[in-house]
Amino acid sequence: TQSPVNVTVTGAAGQIGYALLFRIASGHLLGPDTPVKLRLLEIPQAVKAAEGTAMELDDCAFPLLAGIDIFDDAKQAFDGANVGLLVGARPRTKGMERGDLLEANGGIFKPQGEAINAGAADDIKILVVGNPANTNALIAQAHAPDVPAERFTAMTRLDHNRAISQLAAKLGVPVTEIKKLTIWGNHSATQYPDLFHAEVGGRNAAEAVGDQAWLENDFIPTVAKRGAAIIEARGASSAASAANAAIDHVHTWVNGTAEGDWTSMGIPSDGSYGVPEGIISSFPVTTKDGAYEIVQGLEIDDFSRARIDATVAELVEERDAVKGLGLI
Ligand code: NAX
């Protein structure tokens, strides 16, 4: 067997953390042959709750769980980290302006970026889940100049999975029939779930749907506003599905996409598809041997262009705002 992989999870005592840690420990993140050591980061007031979760993890006697350490200091939590799941963030509360939200998150993701730079392992892979995920990832990345920028990613896999599920339901096919779905842009209401390059049982998905009105007025808003619909129904935001998407994101990054398929990841743009270089935007990507590549050469029609441009414009605004605040 391999030596254990260090997985640092921030916001470990939160609701996503509670749904996430047990799946990491049971082998779903890195596979059935890879032991893991959990390094949990919380704010001091939540350390006790994290300790409670750690007690439950112990009580599962997971064969792959090689240890749990709990920290309230980012430098210690990221020391030796191979994988970092950045879940803890400052949510937007009533009456909060965007500038305040970005500033509060800068206070979290700047020191975490510095801690990653200082002590993470050379092969560190970072997934930011905490919102605003794309821009939080950008802040952390800006403060880790010694880590290759492409190791900082943001989660749009939940949006991706939601889109697959909606499309499969519409067409009455199993989710396994859906390939090459893409989420473009920001993990926000402006995101663009793209069916024009997706396939259903080998056929173009937009053609299989054959209903532009459904695509525009039903599918896109349902996927983009699913988070709000979950809050409305459950009285709490998505947790198990978000944790599942985080598992999927890292698992795919490490283990590769299937032949003839791709996934969606928020990654630093290299300028592909006219997305300004450096912003962290979701793209169609293939993964292999722990690295990812943007799928090139897709034809973007006017409908898709306008939607990609709108979500990318929001990311540019967020980047300019955090720049203005001196956070990057
Ligand atoms: P919770 O409020 O349940 O948990 C957040 C936890 O983070 C708390 O325990 C808090 O003490 C901790 N925390 C705060 N600041 C911290 C810091 N500086 N270091 C370490 N821990 C810190 O939120 P939860 O429902 O778990 O959601 C976590 C984040 O995921 C939120 O920002 C949420 O908006 C975001 N989401 C992102 C999604 C995505 O698709 N990218 C979907 C689900 C979710 O909404």
Automatic annotation (TrEMBL):
Swiss-Prot/TrEMBL catalytic activity: (S)-malate + NAD(+) = oxaloacetate + NADH + H(+)
Positions contributing to NAD(+) binding: 11-17, 105, 112, 129-131
GO biological process terms, semicolon-separated: malate metabolic process; tricarboxylic acid cycle
EC number(s) per entry: 1.1.1.37
Binding residues annotated for substrate, in chain numbering: 92, 98, 131, 162
Name under which the protein is recorded: Malate dehydrogenase
Top-rank EC class of the record's enzyme: oxidoreductase
Organism encoding this protein: Patulibacter medicamentivorans
Family matches, as HAMAP family: Malate_dehydrog_2 (MF_01517)
Segments crossing the lipid bilayer: none
Family the entry assigns: Belongs to the LDH/MDH superfamily. MDH type 2 family.
Keywords: NAD, Oxidoreductase, Tricarboxylic acid cycle
PROSITE patterns according to UniProt: MDH
InterPro entries: L-lactate/malate_DH, Lactate/malate_DH_C, Lactate/malate_DH_N, Lactate_DH/Glyco_Ohase_4_C, Malate_DH_AS, Malate_DH_type2, NAD(P)-bd_dom_sf
Physiological role: Catalyzes the reversible oxidation of malate to oxaloacetate.
Domain Lactate/malate dehydrogenase C-terminal per the UniProt entry, residue ranges: 156-321
Pfam families (UniProt xref): Ldh_1_C, Ldh_1_N
Ranges where the Lactate/malate dehydrogenase N-terminal domain occurs: 6-146
Active site: 187
GO molecular function, one term: L-malate dehydrogenase (NAD+) activity
SUPFAM superfamilies: LDH C-terminal domain-like, NAD(P)-binding Rossmann-fold domains
Protein origin, superkingdom: Bacteria
